[in-house]
Structure to design on (250 residues):
């Protein structure tokens, strides 16, 4: 049944996965490196979480940080990863490919969805970078996607609520419109009341010190804008609050 109340929490660690499930998440979107927007996670991490978390797990298939225009080699990589996670027991995959002109790349998406077999397919926020939201919605429906994750092509779901409402109306139950980006306990009810959406995606994250006492602050192992000594984890109380609101939507 489409638009059944559901909270999906995006996670990139075993600890966050356990926290999200304890808080009442209905589904996990498992990623690697959420600090850069998420990429395909480790199969070993997936196996740990599959073993210890009794909820549906959808796996992000994104080979790198950046845009959604992929080379033939990257598509081959993505197909192999989809088949791998399918065989490991994933319930779904989350992915997206665009053409240079900003349309959904139907040919390459058909190849990826064929690899998914019976798994659920979510079109991720590549949707928010597409040129025409309604053409992209129709293409996703024709491809058999079960869900579209979107902020309404805005910086956050609250800012994109007008388009979210229009997308929900246009979808008419053919595909779940899942509101994501900046979703939290303070705005879920308002977003639902305005758009009708009952399927939400949130990170529910908080930062924490990593425990290192010796620190060499002049050296960076990655992006200079990111602290080497800060970790981000799912916050159980935020998940619980979000889940309570979502599950109470009529």
């Amino acid at each position: 049944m489409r638009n059944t109340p559901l909270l999906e929490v995006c996670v990139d660690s075993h600890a966050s996965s356990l926290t999200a499930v304890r808080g009442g998440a209905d589904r996990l979107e498992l990623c690697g490196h959420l600090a850069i927007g998420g990429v395909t996670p480790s199969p070993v991490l997936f196996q740990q979480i599959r073993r210890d978390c009794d909820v549906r797990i959808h796996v992000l298939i994104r080979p790198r940080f950046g845009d959604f225009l992929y080379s033939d080699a990257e598509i081959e990589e993505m197909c192999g990863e989809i088949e791998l996670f399918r065989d490991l027991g994933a319930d779904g995959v989350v992915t997206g490919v665009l053409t240079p002109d900003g349309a959904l790349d139907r040919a390459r998406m058909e190849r990826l969805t064929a690899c998914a077999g019976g798994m659920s397919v979510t079109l991720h926020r590549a949707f928010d970078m597409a040129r025409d939201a309604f053409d992209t919605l129709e293409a996703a429906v024709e491809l058999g996607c079960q869900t579209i994750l979107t902020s309404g092509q805005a910086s956050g779901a609250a800012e994109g609520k007008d388009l979210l409402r229009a997308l929900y109306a246009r979808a008419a139950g053919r595909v779940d419109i899942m509101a994501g980006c900046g979703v939290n306990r303070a705005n879920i009810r308002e977003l639902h009341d305005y758009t009708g959406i009952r399927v939400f995606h949130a990170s529910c994250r908080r930062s924490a010190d990593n425990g290192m006492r010796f620190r060499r602050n002049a050296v960076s192992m990655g992006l200079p804008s990111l602290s080497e000594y800060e970790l981000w984890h799912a916050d159980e109380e935020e998940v619980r609050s979000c889940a309570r609101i979502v599950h109470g939507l009529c």
Observations:
- Residues 57 and 223 are 29 Å apart (CA to CA).
- The chain has a mean pLDDT of 94.
